[in-house]
Fold:
Amino acid sequence: MAVEAKEIPVANIERLVQPTHDERSRQRAVSMLRCHAIINMRQAMQQDYENRVEPALERRGEQPQDWKSIESAMQSQPSYRFYSATRYNVQEMCYLCVQPAIERSLPEMIGVARELAEKSPAGGSLTLDPSLELPKHSQALDIHLTPGWVYAEHTEDDVAQGAVITFGGKVFTGQHRYRNQPGAIGDSIAHWVEKRFPGFRPRRIRDIGTTSGGNLLPYHDVFPDAEIHGIDVSAPVLRYGHALAQHAGVPVHFSQQNAEQTNFPDGHFDLIVSSFFFHEIPLRSTRKILRECHRLLSPGGLMAHMELPDEVSVSDYENFFWNWDTRNNNEPWYTAYREQDPVALCTEAGFAPDSSFKLLIPDYRSFGPGFLEQCVSGEADAPSHGEGGWFIFGARKD
Structure:
């Protein structure tokens, strides 16, 4: 049974990171600048395209036919160049601005994480595999322009990358209305599952690419009797996540594994989830992982993954906007993933077509249970992805 965090006689690992006045001011400024780039400058760029660039192309008989031709037309435009330069630089700043405070507190954080790993007072476990070979694609680039991404391990029992991704992510989303609450994605999917499948009570839940488990913990609130697992290839993020879960009083079982091939037995899980994961890996890995999900799900089990909308689900202009990350945000598999039909990927993995799905769900914390119920019943449509809605795909195993 979970225990109250106050009963754990060890410091909260997050609270050890204390920015100075100037560092906190810089973080707030970076967060506001990123919000300005991703919302205000994005809107200004779209208006420039619709009001000036597109009409000029039409007059010349060169109206773009797809997102690639829109990209070609926009690359030389000041609105696009200014947007791109601002967004790229502020993306780097999100993670760089949290590093000084993390570096100062790193020895103490490692001590806390080590003690909690030994005791696990809230239950759960932390299982690491020093012999695990990290996938080449996870080390080839600093995904999201995050220094060290999840692969870097700077010292013994390191937790630095867990802290960098966690605190950098808070700067990244801090001014965004629908993304500034930790665990919002997991909370939304968990409540959607509860409403969409009445009576479904998973015995075991697994989160793929869990990093520090921020979107895994909400499943415990909705399904408190379920055994909860989070896997990742990175030891530093798992050590950090285990410490966070202990202070939350949630008995999570963290293990260092490659989701393409895990050590769990067939049919071990009733619910498998992920958040913003598949667009960051090669398609060959996506296909292997979905097949592994099929193996691991029990009959009647469900998988539900939050991801970017596929290309056919949005307009050509939106595809131009979303696919910016492929070339500019160290996410080289982004476009290739979005070109796929998620339902087709599920059926390739062994799921029945009529048991597979892709859809939008509302952000639960923004809209509440009433609106979620209306969306599930078909009385209302969920907002678009990034505007108060989350795009999810998955399947139920027959």
User: Anything to note?
Assistant: The beta strands are 125-127, 204-208, 227-232, 252-256, 269-275, 297-306, 356-362, 389-396. The radius of gyration is 21 Å. Confidence is low (pLDDT under 50) at residues 1-6. The first strand starts at residue 125 and ends at 127.
